[in-house]
Write a structure and sequence with these properties.
With about 375 residues, the protein is of the alpha+beta class. About 20% of the residues lie in helices and about 35% in strands. The chain has a six-stranded antiparallel beta barrel with strand order 3-4-5-9-7-6. A four-stranded antiparallel beta sheet has the order 2-10-12-11. Strands 15-14-24 form a three-stranded mixed beta sheet, covered by helices on one side. One of its GO terms (cellular component) is bacterial-type flagellum basal body, distal rod, P ring.
Length: about 375
């Protein structure tokens, strides 16, 4: 009876793991549709109303130039005037114009100081035109900056939390020009895979053709699938995208190991494999200490104080673990179990993985961040 229950439990666990591994993903989460993309915008503007935390105009002459230009456009003549306010800061304003954004719509903007301003907290961005790569103005930004940090300073101490020299303005820009692109006139549509793979592209082609009932999709290469919109039978390209984007596909991904040397983080995909290999690891520490000794002459005698150098040097080597056998991994759990058998820290594990990759025993892409 116990054997039957154990077999049933193992079968349930295996089925759950298999289903989790074979999880399908929507096509819209795997590809980019041609023409459905955002565009980057950038502008150069001025933030005013700062509480004495703005640019020093001696160190940031461009701030004075833009301030003079703004005042002259408003009818204030400042030619030859000497003014040194500390409540203004020159900034770069960035944003992304979403696909199909229409005139009058609003988008979020990010404001970043480019001078020696200490904080943008409480400032207001003055009307700033935002240009795209073609040099045309597509939006105009203005509004109160929400800074991402805080700064407090006294005579002998200073505390900074976050980044007070950068902030955001929610819905801070209004779209003034639309991107010249008519999606409804497309006769074919290209799907660009975010992670090109021949198997995934073939599966996308198959699932689209099965759903439509005719050959409308064609795989061009590992990163592109072309759809003949007339063959889909949809009333418009937008309707065809609605039919296609929610179809599910099981993606095929490359085995990959990603390590972050700064934090000691290691991430491994489920398809990572390690061949049978033996690993030895140990630490070598070199210590050099300086303890100079001052020798002084006797009281009331002639002579001078002399500093005699004293250096102590030692080499310490930890015993290490000897040779540890990492068996050939047939699954991610076995790979982790084999590496954990070495009993080393994550940072040492990164060096071990590098060495295993150099030895040709790690069968995965090794990405170092």
């Amino acid at each position: 009876m116990m054997l039957r229950l154990l077999s049933a439990a193992l079968l349930t666990i295996f089925s759950f793991v298999h289903v989790a591994h074979a999880q399908s993903v929507r096509i819209k989460d795997l590809v980019e549709f041609e023409g459905v993309r955002s565009n980057d915008l950038v502008g150069y503007g001025l933030v005013v109303g700062l509480n004495g935390t703005g640019d020093g105009l001696r160190n940031s002459p461009f701030t004075e130039d833009i301030m003079s230009n703004i005042l002259e456009r408003l009818g204030v003549n400042v030619t030859g005037e000497q003014f040194r306010p500390r409540n203004v800061a020159a900034v770069l304003v960035t944003a992304r114009l979403p696909a199909f954004a229409r005139s009058g719509g609003q988008i979020d903007v990010t404001v970043s100081a480019i001078g020696d301003a200490k904080s943008l907290l409480g400032g207001t961005l003055i009307m700033t035109p935002m240009n795209a790569a073609d040099g045309q103005i597509y939006a105009v930004a203005q509004g109160t900056v929400i800074a991402g940090g805080v700064e407090a300073e006294g005579d002998a101490a200073k505390v900074v939390q976050g980044v007070p020299t950068a902030g955001v303005i929610p819905s801070g820009a209004r779209v003034e020009r639309e991107v010249d692109f008519d999606f409804s006139q497309l006769s074919s549509l290209r799907l660009a895979l975010r992670e090109p793979d021949f198997t995934t592209a073939a599966r996308i082609e198959d699932v689209i053709n099965r759903s439509i009932g005719r050959r409308a999709a064609t795989m061009n290469d590992a990163g592109t699938v072309t759809i003949n919109l007339k063959q889909t039978g949809a009333r418009s390209p937008a309707r065809a995208v609605v039919t296609i984007e929610n179809l599910t596909v099981e993606p095929e991904r490359k085995a990959r190991v990603v390590v972050d040397q700064r934090s000691g983080t290691i991430v491994m995909g489920s398809d990572v494999r390690i061949s049978r290999v033996a690993v030895s690891q140990g630490n070598l520490t070199l210590r050099i200490e300086e303890a100079p000794l001052a020798i002084q002459p006797n009281p009331f005698s002639e002579g001078e104080t002399v500093v005699v150098p004293r250096t102590g040097a030692a080499i310490e080597e930890e015993p290490g673990i000897g040779l540890a056998l990492v068996p050939g991994g047939t699954s991610l759990s076995e790979v982790i179990a084999g590496l954990n058998a070495l009993g080393v820290s994550p940072r040492d594990m990164i060096d071990i993985l590098k060495s295993i990759k150099a030895a040709g025993a790690l069968h995965a892409d090794f990405v170092v961040m």
